[in-house]
Amino acid sequence: MERGNTEAETLKLNGWGIGDVLEGDEGYGPDRIKITAIGNDIFLCLWDYKSTGVYNKESGNTTLRCREWKKVN
Known about the structure:
This protein is mainly beta. The chain has one domain (7-63).
């Protein structure tokens, strides 16, 4: 995973866009996010905690720096 100066730049560097699902693990089991919008610096996403298949929490302040994310769809 390549990291940019902003979250939006990190998405672009890795070729990730709206509709993509990313998976990352902080040591408690994998979580997934679905990208719903990308701004100049930040992005919006829906969270699927524990990868259950249910996306329920929308977030506009998600960081990509705390885990190694990979595209899963």
